[in-house]
Amino acid sequence: MKTHFLADTTVLLGRSMRHIFRSVDTIITTAITPIALMLLFVYVFGGAIMGETENYVNYLLPGIMLIAIASGIAYTALRVFTDMSSGIFERFQSMPIARSSVLWAHVLTSLVANGLSLVIIVLIALAMGFRTSANVLEWLAVIGILALFTLALTWIAIIAGMAAKSVDGATGFSYPLIFLPFISSAFVPTETMPGPVRAFAENQPVTSIVNTIQDLFSGQPVGSGIWVALGWCVGILVVAYAFAMMTYRRKIN
Amino acid sequence: MTNPAGIGPAIQVQGVEKSFKNLHVLRGVDFEVAPGSIFALLGSNGAGKTTMVKILSTLLKADAGTCTVNGFDVDAEPLKIRESISLTGQFAAVDEILTGRENLVLVAKLRHLKAPGNVADDLLARFNLTEAGPRKVGTYSGGMRRRLDIAMSLIGQPKVIFLDEPTTGLDPEARLDVWRIIKDLSTQGTTVLLTTQYLDEAEQLADRIAILHEGRIIANGTLAELKQLLPPAKVEYVEKQPTLEEIFLALVGNNSKEPSGDRS
């Protein structure tokens, strides 16, 4: 019943948003590790890496934001897993609602929750000296890429949440994702890395996304890099969505 | 009474089979449930009771056979079925982070009812949960959770209710509470299909009992009919000892009708 899709999704979104606002710690924890990393890299390693700290915040922020998203989506997996194991998912599925709204509500909640964490992180970065020449259009492009990246990873989280047999299984998948920015241009330029590592770093999704956001923030032309970044995001999104639907169908058959 | 034709069974199951990989869980199940009656599906763990309930509540698809609920075919019109049934699963399907009242409002909204708040308040009163209503469900006892769970299933007045092991894990008092609720439902004309592994539960509640064993119904009838399957009872005189349940209830004072709000 497509007719109820919006109404049902809104009701279920309201439910997950209550979960978030009743456990604000999930937003804080999502933001705190990336913030700690940002402080560590800027004030401890920054001088050695870049010679000065202020520009390094500008360089670092995009990667930090991606780390925040990669750790934030673990909570989506956790919420989906809890719904699955508590039987509430089955209750919803046995009711006359638009069935897909159950998953979409989690997806929208993930966008909102990660958005809030990112706002906190950007505010801290501003306090640490982050400055950008980005205009409204460039900001919109940054927000769009981050939203797309969140969406893509959220569908991966939904697969993990549906397929997992335990809480650890539901959230464990995010660790490699959190680690990915370290082997990219997020912390140091890839030129200093030895051959194979550099090849990996330059050809994995995080580098193109980080480079694009860095360019947008600093007013550089983004070039063709933005298409590579968008390609990665859309590609991961499509594949993850397809697998999520497959897992979902197996669950209800 | 309740289906489009105006007559016929509320639930009809014919030749239902279901396998999970190599595990042949249901091997041709047949039974019918009359409108307004309580039907117990009795079986040990792993007998396939939950699988049967999931097929009837459109959560799983059968490999073979036909099922109708309220006259609607589960494969052809699952949405019509979802509009006229409720499922209370094996584990209380409640949202722990929301309050009891919010849980009820949530379901009322998803059933697209007007005045979901009033629906919630009425049910809280009916299930002795008014006081606990504004508290998070995470603080509820097992019995309170189950009552809330059943209350959530009654929203929208479904004609058929599936209760999958409704009293598993409950203490004796909470169990009696649930039994009373189920009897009330049936009095009001709701068809109840419940699964249980407790013989006394089936004996207490059900109009008809079907025994599901290794994927087939091996016996189906009223309690009296099932008793006739065995050789006539030998008359013996045995001193009537109180059961442990009777002793327990006498000691804790079952006269307090108002169930306590504390975690037990």
What does the model show?
- The complex is a heterodimer of chains A (about 250) and B (about 260).
- Chain A has helices at about 5-20, 25-50, 55-85, 90-95, 100-125, 135-165, 165-170, 175-180, 195-205, 205-220, 225-250.
- Chain A contains 11 helices and no strands.
- Helix content of chain A is about 80%, strand content about 0%.
- Chain A has about 250 residues and is mainly α.
- In chain A, helix 1 (about 5-20) crosses helix 5 (about 100-125) and helix 5 packs across helix 6.
- Chain B is α/β, with parallel strands linked by helices and about 260 residues long.
- Chain B has a domain at about 1-35 and about 45-90 and about 160-170 and about 190-230: P-loop containing nucleotide triphosphate hydrolases (Rossmann fold, 3-Layer(aba) Sandwich), CATH 3.40.50.300.
- Chain B is built from 9 helices and 10 strands.
- The radius of gyration of chain B is 19 Å and the shape is globular.
- Chain B starts with 10 loop residues before the first strand and ends in a 12-residue tail after the last helix.
- Residues about 1-5 and about 255-264 of chain B have low confidence and may be disordered.
